[in-house]
Design brief:
138 residues; mainly beta; OB fold (Dihydrolipoamide Acetyltransferase, E2P); two-stranded antiparallel ribbon; 7 strands; globular; binds zinc ion
Length: 138
C-alpha cells in the first residue's frame, strides 16, 4: 500500500529531524544561548536570534493546546475528512501543529484541552516518517 498523503521535502537544516523520525525519535532544535526549544526548525533562534543551535531528543510527550475538527479538506486530504488538527504544547517548550490520531471527529466533546499526548510516526515514502500525536490520557 502506498502512502497517499503529501510527504514534505527534506531540507539540509531539517536533516537531523527526519533522521530522528526514522529511529522513532522526535528531534527538536534548541538554542545554546537562551536554551529555548523552538518548533519549526530554523537557522536562527526565534527568541534571541542566535545561530548557535543544537538538536536534542525530545520526550515525544505533550499536551493538547487547542484543536479543531476539519470537516472539509482539499487535494489528497479530502478523503481523510473529517479529521482533527491540534496544536500540541511540547513538554520541552513551543508548539507543534499536528493531525491528532485516535480521536473521533464526530465527538469533539471527548477531546480535552490539556489532554496528554504522545508522538508516533507513520511511514510516508521510503525515506520519510511523519510525526502524528495520539491522546494517551484525557
Ligand atoms: Zn535563543
Amino acid at each position: 500500500m502506498s502512502y497517499e498523503l503529501p510527504v514534505p521535502r527534506q531540507g539540509t537544516h531539517t536533516k537531523p529531524f527526519w533522521q530522528g523520525t526514522k529511529e522513532g525519535k522526535l528531534m527538536l532544535p534548541r538554542c545554546l544561548d537562551c536554551n529555548r526549544v523552538h518548533w519549526y526548525p530554523r537557522h536562527i533562534c526565534p527568541n534571541c536570534h542566535s545561530m548557535n543551535l543544537e538538536w536534542i531528543e525530545g520526550s515525544g510527550e505533550g499536551t493538547v493546546h487547542t484543536f479543531a475538527v476539519q470537516h472539509m479538506a482539499f487535494g489528497p486530504w479530502a478523503k481523510e475528512a473529517p479529521f482533527v488538527t491540534a496544536y500540541i504544547d511540547l513538554k520541552e517548550g513551543d508548539r507543534m501543529l499536528t493531525v491528532l490520531r485516535g480521536v473521533d471527529p464526530a465527538k469533539p466533546e471527548d477531546i480535552k484541552i490539556g489532554s496528554k499526548v504522545k508522538v508516533e510516526f507513520e511511514q510516508g515514502d521510503d525515506d520519510t516518517f511523519l510525526p502524528f500525536w495520539r491522546v494517551v490520557e484525557a
